Amino acid sequence: MKIAMVGTGYVGLVTGTCLANMGHEVTCVDIDEEKVRMLKKGKAPIYEPGLEELMKRNVFEERLTFTTSLAEAVKATDVIFIAVGTPPTEEGEADLSAVFSVAKEIAKSADEHKVVVNKSTVPVGTAQKVKKIIKENIKEGIDFDVVSNPEFLKEGMAIQDFQVPDRIVIGVDNGRAQKMMDDIYKDVARPNRPIMFTDVKSAELIKYASNAMLATRISFMNQLSCLCDKVGADIKEVAKGMGLDSRIGSRFLQAGIGFGGSCFPKDVSALSSTLEKHGCSADLIDSVSSINERQKLIAVRKLESLLEIKDKTIAVWGLSFKPRTDDIRESPAIEIVKNLLEKGANVKAFDPVAMKNAKKELKKITYCKKPMEAVEGADALIVATEWDEFRNPDFEKLKSLMKRPIIVDGRNIYKPKSMQEIGFEYIGIGR
Ligand code: NAD
After folding, report:
1. CA–CA distance, 422 with 428 (Å, rounded to integer)
2. Would the pTM count as exceeding 0.85?
């Protein structure tokens, strides 16, 4: 199948590369000329384990190309995926301007039947709008289909998520589009992990419902973590006991400094807007967001109970919103650093891969080459991202390097009792 992938960010580049790796001919399109230049040189503009190697192989074997020309890509392909960003507007809705502008350009360049696939996360009803835009701009007599194929990949695990997905959801409204989508994905499907074909609107909503449910579980545990702190229970034990119930399961029950990233916060907020727009109450979803907002700075509040932050040196381990990615969008770690700076702290930070991105947003901090360099002379350490390399440091060395051995474990990765035995003033979340 000849495929165009419009938007080569975290989703488009991974999906485009993985589709090429399955034997399809894929052209990745982006308006960012610098990005396309890098890609043509075989460099991935993002950190995603295994991606660059896979990209290079598929470029070498001539299944994967990059261009800034959407018109040429549309003419040369049968199926065009839209994987551009849908960031939040000031009102918290999804900004669909890039999706609509790409849809218009596709329509203008189409010279024969095309399948246009919405892969970007878009509110229910967007496919209908995309259809209208294409209809208004396509040459008379040329037929097209609009399909919804939401993406569920997790940054840091994106290639594996493509190759062994829990599910592939495809919203279609006719057999021809269904057959073409089946041809694209049939080799990824497994007997216990089928392609779920459904109607377009349900497919669009499945994406928001899934992210909002995962975010709800996190906010639920964060709310309970406050009670654990007050009464002396341990939220990790509570989560373990809950997770053993097969109706609940153990995943996404971690209390901590809240969720971030380019998806959960914006998707929860966009779902709230959509609910309200349709006259439905969004109170549960709104609480998920407000609990999360409150939770982001809990590490700073807890630290303030032990020391005055002004003029202190605070080390921060981790800047990305989660491990195995360089993505800092909506990262609680970034919020924490900004808040520490506002309060007059000197911040020394370390992250294995996200410092390059962080430097664009956080200027007035010291970036360190190693985790131990960041804690030298620090009055406290905040662990903000649960990178594996932070899990088992040489605790004695860590303690000896710090001015005062306070650890605020924003991701609950250490055992409180062991930390206290070593001599740390340990603060977890809900422990
Ligand atoms: P991103 O910001 O990393 O990438 C978007 C890309 O689109 C950028 O490279 C940008 O230059 C390009 N672009 C913007 N306008 C364009 C245009 N008119 N023509 C061509 N290219 C254009 O975004 P992302 O994280 O890959 O997310 C893309 C979509 O997928 C969003 O809707 C997001 O919600 C959704 N999604 C993201 C993830 C994730 O983990 N990042 C997971 C699932 C779904």
Report:
1. 15
2. yes
